[in-house]
Structure formats: structure tokens, C-alpha cells
């Protein structure tokens, strides 16, 4: 049985989260709204080893994006 004041979803539990959900949107380009866009941001990127201004390679497969760095 859980302690009376125990909490689920602590900061450590949240930091260990390995899956995130985002919404694919669009960025209008000369009135064209058919170009999808996806913006990733958050401290979890730093915690995963990504740094500001670091080059990232995106490998594209059907319904799958893989992000890797050279270091």
C-alpha cells in the first residue's frame, strides 16, 4: 500500500520518459499550407545529449524519423 503522502509522477519519473507526443503542423510558404513542420524543444533534448548549435542528422523512413549526432 502506498504511503499517505507518496506521489506518483515524481521529477525522476518524468525525466526518465523516453516517449513524447507532438503534433505535426504546417508553415505557410507563399500561401501553401501543404508543407508539414515539426518542432522539437525541451530540456529532455539536453538530457538526451543534444547541445545548442550541434549538427543533427535526420534519417527518414516511412513514418519514422531518427535523430543522431556526429559526436
UniProtKB/TrEMBL annotation:
GO terms for biological process: RNA metabolic process. GO terms for cellular component: cytoplasm. It holds the Pfam family SymE_toxin. GO terms for molecular function: hydrolase activity, acting on ester bonds; RNA binding. Residues 31-40 have a biased composition (Polar residues). Residues 19-69 form the Toxin SymE-like domain. InterPro entries: Toxin_SymE-like (IPR014944). This is Type I toxin-antitoxin system SymE family toxin. It comes from Candidatus Pantoea soli.
Amino acid at each position: 500500500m502506498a504511503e499517505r503522502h507518496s506521489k506518483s509522477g515524481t521529477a525522476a519519473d518524468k525525466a526518465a520518459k523516453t516517449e513524447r507526443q507532438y503534433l505535426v503542423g504546417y508553415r505557410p510558404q507563399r500561401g501553401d499550407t501543404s508543407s508539414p513542420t515539426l518542432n522539437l524543444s525541451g530540456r529532455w533534448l539536453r538530457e538526451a545529449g543534444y547541445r545548442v548549435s550541434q549538427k543533427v542528422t535526420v534519417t527518414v523512413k516511412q513514418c519514422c524519423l531518427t535523430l543522431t549526432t556526429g559526436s
